[in-house]
Write a structure and sequence with these properties.
This protein is α/β, with parallel strands linked by helices. The protein has four domains: 227 residues, 3-Layer(aba) Sandwich (Rossmann fold); 80 residues, no CATH class; 56 residues; 83 residues, Orthogonal Bundle (Arc Repressor Mutant, subunit A), CATH 1.10.10. Strands 3-2-1-9-10 form a five-stranded parallel sheet. It has a three-stranded antiparallel sheet with strand order 5-6-7, with no helix packed on it. The chain has a two-stranded antiparallel sheet with strand order 4-8. Strand 9, helix 11 and strand 10 form a beta-alpha-beta unit.
């Protein structure tokens, strides 16, 4: 343990950098509550998505790093803001008319359009928990409705009432003139309609713990701020949660930087220390535009997991979280192969290097061994030339290349083969464009075919790669990468491809000869 802790103190991996920052918060000892509290937030007005996964995965990585550095216990709360009012009907749910009838009700009181749970929030909360449980995250689920109505927030709500003016001083300068005129940090839940009302606070009674507001019909109503009779506005609500629970660490997207600033000020106004923040960059789509849920221009969780294991997505989330990254289909194969490269390298690394290896953070310090003996990119190209429709059709090629492998002994490889076939047919095949070989390229490909006919070196990928190099040099390709680009474009219908020697070893000598001859003859050229 001491060796691990010593190495963790100097690790440059960002979760350890964050953990060390958090450790300084309690340099004099553990917090009074007895544990360090990590939090992630979730709005159940929609279904869990890839951003939800990313936030919980990254927070878990920091938590694990902290536990390697300190003996102070930790907790992770996944908090659902399910008492918020439904402001608009989501476009991806059934029973739209029924949903419209429930606008402005707390999400837990909105009828479930799917008909499976007591309310819409309950449905989405259940989905969230199934979602998180499916990835093995360790967390405690928290519901805003439960916390407000059970009295968990009462003490801090009364303090917010007492410090109402301080909160207003923080919030009002951030609002436009019209919003300033009606703004209140307290949102009463109407005893008449059940709606979460965005109305001014007309009177405050700190001793009684109540506010007075006006209903839409003009009646003045007095309600306590405790017991779930009111909910706080978004930024004060975030601050209330931090202050009441003693949240020590929370990360959020770049789009919430202003909210973090204002909520931190409010948390201090409530007399408590805000958590250590971490701001991550937002994702971009295939065109480099920011992903928007309303536009639907991003890659969904379901889409990623249709083509690759969750660990590859965890790697994507680990890498450079403060850099805007394209979240598109074409990043998936690279993420899969990089994940397995990191796995293969892990066992031979010294402890310090292991702590910088992403798989330490993905697997909480105990990464498995990789049995992906064929790279995912290679499987994709094999699926292409073999016209594969399922993983089974690739195993004949795989077992010639790796005789000791089987679906039973190499389940990761079997799963990767299935992912590759699906990815090829859905994402690669519709976009493939083959071109005819030039005269120089055709001569080189014919030469390679003849050399392979005389080949006696077996399925040695490196030796075959050297032979492919030799052909390119013999035919004057300069730079040599133009030779490989020609092979990819003419034979695979793509601009990029695998190490060609490895491809030959996997696909087979005779099969590659036939492919080269088809390419030279122009038989592969896409008909347009």
């Amino acid at each position: 343990m001491s060796d691990l802790r010593d190495a963790a103190q100097s690790s440059k991996a960002w979760p350890f950098e964050e953990a060390r920052k958090l450790l300084k918060r309690y340099a004099k000892g553990a917090p009074e509550k007895g544990y360090v509290l990590f939090q992630t937030g979730y709005g159940p007005s929609g279904l869990p998505h890839i951003g939800t996964f990313g936030e919980v995965a990254r927070t878990t990585m920091v938590r694990q790093a902290f536990e390697a550095l300190s003996d102070i216990p930790t907790k992770l709360i996944c908090f659902s803001d399910d008492m918020d009012g439904l402001r608009k009907v989501p476009g991806n749910v059934p029973n739209q008319e029924q949903m419209a009838e429930d606008l402005n009700l707390p999400l837990t009181r909105v009828r479930d359009p799917f008909g499976t749970h007591e309310g819409f929030a309950q449905h989405n909360n259940a989905r969230l928990r199934d979602f998180l449980d499916g990835f093995g995250f360790e967390y405690e689920f928290a519901s805003a409705t439960d916390y407000y109505t059970s009295g968990r927030f009462d003490e801090m709500l009364l303090r917010a009432l007492e410090r109402f003016d301080k909160i207003m001083e923080i919030m009002l300068p951030t609002l436009g003139a019209d919003r300033q005129a009606t703004y209140s940090p307290f949102l009463p839940v109407s005893p008449k309609s059940g709606h979460v009302l965005q109305v001014p606070t007309l009177e405050r009674n700190v001793e009684k713990g109540t506010i007075v507001y006006e209903e839409p019909d003009g009646e003045r109503v007095e309600v306590p701020v405790t017991g779930g009779h009111v909910k706080m506005q978004w930024k004060p609500d975030w601050a209330l949660r931090w202050a009441a629970l003693g949240v020590d660490y929370e990360m959020s997207g770049k789009d919430l930087m202003d909210s973090v600033t204002q909520s931190s000020k409010i948390c201090r106004a409530l007399g408590e220390r805000p958590p250590e923040p971490y701001t991550y960059e937002l994702f971009l789509d295939g065109e480099g535009q920011k992903i928007s849920k309303s536009k639907g221009n991003g890659l969904t969780m379901e889409e990623w997991l249709a083509y690759a294991p969750a660990e590859s997505l965890s790697l994507f989330m680990f890498q450079k979280p403060r850099t805007a990254k394209r979240l598109h289909f074409d990043v998936i194969p690279k993420a899969v192969d990089e994940y397995h490269q990191h796995l293969r390298g892990y066992s031979d690394q010294e402890l310090k290097a292991q702590l910088n290896n992403p798989v330490w953070h993905i697997h909480g310090g105990t990464p498995p061994a990789s049995n992906l003996v064929v790279p995912f990119a290679m499987l994709l190209n094999l699926a292409s030339v073999a016209g594969a429709e399922d993983a089974g059709s690739l195993w004949g090629f795989i077992q010639r290349y790796a005789p000791d492998a089987s679906p039973e002994t190499h389940p990761d490889l079997d799963a990767a083969a299935g992912y590759a076939v699906r990815y090829y047919n859905d994402e690669v095949k519709p976009k493939k464009v083959y071109r005819a070989a030039t005269e120089v390229e055709a001569a080189a490909m014919s030469d390679l075919a003849e050399r392979l006919k005389a080949w006696e070196g077996g399925l040695d990928a490196e030796a075959l790669q050297s032979e492919v190099f030799a052909v390119g040099k013999a035919h004057g390709f300069d730079p040599l990468r133009n030779w490989f680009t020609a092979l990819y474009q003419v034979l695979l219908g793509a601009d990029q491809g695998p190490r060609f020697g490895g491809f030959i070893a996997l696909y087979g000598i005779d099969e590659t000869i036939s492919l080269l001859e088809a390419g030279v003859a122009g038989a592969l050229v896409t008909q347009t």
